[in-house]
What we know:
Elements: H1 2-61, H2 69-73, H3 82-96, H4 101-116, H5 124-129, E1 131-132, E2 135-136, H6 140-143, H7 145-148, H8 153-163, E3 174-176, H9 183-192, E4 195-199, E5 202-205
Antiparallel strand pairs: 1-2, 3-5, 4-5
Amino acid sequence: MYRRCLTKLLLTSMIFMMSWICLKELQINRIAATQAFRMEYLTATEEEDKKSFLEVVACVASGQRVVDYEVLEKEMKYHLSDQDYDSLLRIVEAEAGGEDSDGKLLVANVVLNRVNNENFPDTVTEVVMQKEQGVAQFSPTVDGRFQNITVSQETYEAVERALYGEDISQGALYFCARKKADSTKVKWFDQKLTRLFTYGNHDFFL
């Protein structure tokens, strides 16, 4: 009987030991599988990053430029003749040479608003050179500034903004430099027109 109990105890111990060994082996296999998966994932990620990097390097090496999609979609709204373009540059510089970029843009907007209005001539040059009852609509055309002006880079940029359709003028058709203009002329603006806003040294009217 003593031997039978000893045998049962020995068999139980062996079964417990074998179960413990199998459990440990299962845990080791799981850990190994997890590490293998992580290594495979990291390797794939590194390959993808390497591919992206090589594509960028190839693009740069080929001289290609990365251009924003919105820039490609942007189209010029106004297509002017060389004469009209030169007239617009000169009148903007002459009238708003001391203004910032938006001040220059506003003068360009007024000229183009007139071109689009049936009550004014149909081209930039005709608008700029227009006279009403012998009085020039733009004083720089008669005092020499229009003819002798040197156009700045900022004026070129402001005119380009206007030609691409940027308009901050609220539809203005007139402007005047109140502090510099003759008082009788300023009175006419105030009585005959609707004042919209003031920007820089200019009041803008409709």
